[in-house]
Amino acid sequence: MARAFTPKVITANHLLEGDVIYMTDTGEWTRELCNAVLLTDEADADLRLLEAQQQVDEVVGVYLADAKTDDNGNPTPTHFREEFRRTGPSNYFHGKQAEA
């Protein structure tokens, strides 16, 4: 039996800066997960993934990541790996941790 499709976001790393980025509803990239489009249709997710993978001059490592909506209706990770990628390295206080 096939596994049921669960909501996803498209994520990648910015080619030049290395930051974690997410695809928005308009096909642009954002560094904020709350601005990412939450894909609930498998066919739509596959098409958008193909579109994202063709943007080799902007992104690297494009993939679909499991997500769900939080209490405000924004996408949020369902796996600790994506939460870790979203918040950045935890070995010392720098980057995203220093900004928050």
Which properties best describe this structure?
3 helices; five-stranded antiparallel β-sheet; globular; 100 residues; 27% strand; alpha+beta
Q: What does this molecule look like?
A:
- By secondary structure, the chain is α+β, with helices and mostly antiparallel strands.
- It has helices spanning 42-53, 80-87, 95-99, and strands spanning 8-14, 20-23, 29-30, 59-69, 75-77.
- The protein has one domain.
- It is built from three helices and five strands.
- It has a five-stranded antiparallel β-sheet.
- The relative contact order is 0.21.
Q: Please tell me how large the radius of gyration is.
A: 14 Å
- SSE string, helices as H and strands as E: EEEHEEHH
As a percent range, the share of strand residues is: 25-35%
DSSP helix fraction: 25-40%
Number of strands: 5
Number of helices: 3
Outline the fold blueprint.
Blueprint (H helix, E strand, L loop, with lengths): L7 E7 L5 E4 L5 E2 L11 H12 L5 E11 L5 E3 L2 H8 L7 H5 L1
Antiparallel strand pairs: 1-2, 1-4, 2-3, 4-5
